[in-house]
Amino acid sequence: MTEAPRTPLQAALDGIDYPDSDSAHAAKVRQAELTKPAGSLGLLEELSIWASSVQGRCPPHSFERTRVVVFAGDHGIAAAGVSAYPAEVTAQMVGNILAGGAAVSVLAAAADAGVRLVDMSVDADTSQEVSRSDISRYKVRRSTGRIDTEDALTANEAERAIEAGIRVADEEIDAGVELLIAGDLGIGNTTPASVLVSVLTDTEPIKVVGRGTGIDDAGWIRKCAAIRDARRRAWPHRDDLSRLLAIAGGADLAAMTGFLLQAANRRTPVLLDGLVVSAAALTAQLGNPRVVRWFQAAHLSAEPAHDLALRRLGLTPVLDLGMRLGEGTGALVALPILRAATRTLAEMSTFDEAAVSTSVSTGFDPA
Ligand SMILES: Cc1cc2ncn([C@H]3O[C@H](COP(=O)(O)O)[C@@H](O)[C@H]3O)c2cc1C
Ligand SMILES: O=C(O)c1cccnc1
């Protein structure tokens, strides 16, 4: 009997390996030889070691070719009054990103990173938007099911969304990208993201509920109820990545999960953004725990579920700026710090090269 062909998701899950430990070791050795007191570059030293391991080379490149892929999607749960903004804002913000006026546009320009927008489930026809690439190519449907009472996606839609994320990662990596950032855009998306975190960290709903775009107390109570109900529907499927994304995620979260898994499968590092992307990272971790070794957490979002997600992922965020926006913005602010880490490791002189004396390891003699 011939076996069924592996799906792209299965191939990604099976293919994920660890980053290169020899390069990590070489980076540690080189850090000790550079003209500075041992350990004095703090977290930059750890970031440089991670960069070496994921690039498989020491010294590492400085991630000049970085791309943000913003996965946009509407969410049926927005109708439950869980956001401070109306659902039309998603499509309006798509236009704003394409016009270069969004926070992600400005921060990407400042950090010299490219931006790509992918419409997975925006509740409007984005194929009409003026854009250099066809942002609607991977669209799975308009909006999603209301996750408190129905599934976000059918099984087939979830599979197509995951595979879209895998293909987007392939396209970016084939074009020569060195570092990927995933961003999110979609009114209501902190609700499914919080449900995924609640299920995958086994945390009671009330502890994951945040203010998102800035909901008031009445909205917060509605959001609690929505998360509680969606969590109850998702809980029996907590070991099944695709089912979870179909029941309580959405097309954008499913695409992000495929994107993150395929990046790791193709040995391409990812700088994680806030809650929404980290919820996809947790879902990816469910599929293969090794995937996390290819991720670096950029920042800690003000959303309470983000801290829970990062703890479960075992990642320490570089920044804590009280940001709560998504779009990949937190990752873009951390990018120059990651580059600072790689450049100090690559370009500083060693004690030998600069003829600087190394530390005095034996006792100080005042005589
Ligand atoms: C103008 C505007 C721009 C945004 N850019 C990202 N988000 C972020 O906020 C939304 C999620 O929060 P919630 O779950 O409370 O709706 C998503 O659109 C997310 O991408 C924005 C939100 C707004 C209003
Ligand atoms: O942390 C995030 O990703 C986030 C927080 C609030 C709104 N949108 C996204």
Automatic annotation (TrEMBL):
GO terms for molecular function: nicotinate-nucleotide-dimethylbenzimidazole phosphoribosyltransferase activity. Gene3D superfamilies: 1.10.1610.10, 3.40.50.10210. Pfam families: DBI_PRT. CDD domains: DMB-PRT_CobT. Transmembrane segments: none annotated. The active site is at 327 (proton acceptor). Its EC number is 2.4.2.21. Keywords: Cobalamin biosynthesis, Glycosyltransferase, Transferase. It is an enzyme of class 2 (transferase). Pathway: Nucleoside biosynthesis; alpha-ribazole biosynthesis; alpha-ribazole from 5,6-dimethylbenzimidazole: step 1/2. It catalyses: 5,6-dimethylbenzimidazole + nicotinate beta-D-ribonucleotide = alpha-ribazole 5'-phosphate + nicotinate + H(+). InterPro entries: Nict_dMeBzImd_PRibTrfase, Nict_dMeBzImd_PRibTrfase_bact, Nict_dMeBzImd_PRibTrfase_N, Nict_dMeBzImd_PRibTrfase_sf. Catalyzes the synthesis of alpha-ribazole-5'-phosphate from nicotinate mononucleotide (NAMN) and 5,6-dimethylbenzimidazole (DMB). Belongs to the CobT family. This is Nicotinate-nucleotide--dimethylbenzimidazole phosphoribosyltransferase. It comes from Jatrophihabitans lederbergiae.
